[in-house]
Write a structure and sequence with these properties.
With about 160 residues, this protein is of the alpha/beta class. The chain folds into two domains: about 1-15 and about 95-164, Alpha/Beta hydrolase fold, catalytic domain (Rossmann fold); about 20-90, no CATH class. It contains five helices and five strands; from the N terminus they run βαβαβαβαβα. Strands 1-4-5 form a three-stranded parallel β-sheet, with helices on both faces.
């Protein structure tokens, strides 16, 4: 079997940090948590998800329905998020990287996954060879474990990786 470099986005989230800048208070919270860790060794952790939302890294009900239930449970998963990560992740932007891709790009997404307009915007900005596959899904969390989504996405990736 041949192989080649490929960038694939499966139900990815492609934020635009210029159009949607981060909340300065969230970035500052992350900075303070990092400084506290450096001064005291204490790492401030919040839950990644919770049933009631609350002070969590992913305040989406759908995120809880996967990561907070047996469906997403794996032995090495810890429902925790280092608050200092907010210093860098809150302002993460993917959009500006699209035009810099030099390897083939494959987008797999659905209308019910997170922010389809961002996926379309990212795809449109990619100038390297690209292909897209839009699937039907109830939402974001179906992509890790629904064979109806996994099989067509995997087939698309295999085809591109086998191409000369």
């Amino acid at each position: 079997m041949g192989g080649r470099d490929l960038f694939a986005g499966v139900a990815g989230v492609y934020p635009d940090a210029v159009a949607n800048p981060p909340d300065p208070a969230v970035v500052e919270r992350g900075r303070r948590a990092r400084e506290r860790r450096l001064a005291t060794g204490e790492v401030e952790i919040i839950p990644a998800v919770a049933a009631d939302g609350g002070d969590v890294a992913m305040p989406l009900r759908e995120a809880f329905e996967y990561y907070g239930t047996p469906r997403g449970a794996v032995p090495n998963y810890t429902n925790g998020f280092a608050v200092e990560s907010f210093e860098h992740t809150a302002g993460f932007g993917a959009q500006e990287a699209a035009a810099r891709l030099t390897v083939p790009f494959q987008l797999v997404h659905c209308e019910n996954a997170l922010v389809p307009p961002w996926a379309r915007e990212f795809y449109a900005a990619v100038t390297s060879p690209k292909s897209e596959l839009w699937l039907d899904s109830a939402g974001q969390i179906d992509f890790p474990d629904d064979p109806r989504l996994i099989e067509p996405a995997a087939a698309l990736f295999r085809d591109v990786c086998r191409a000369p």
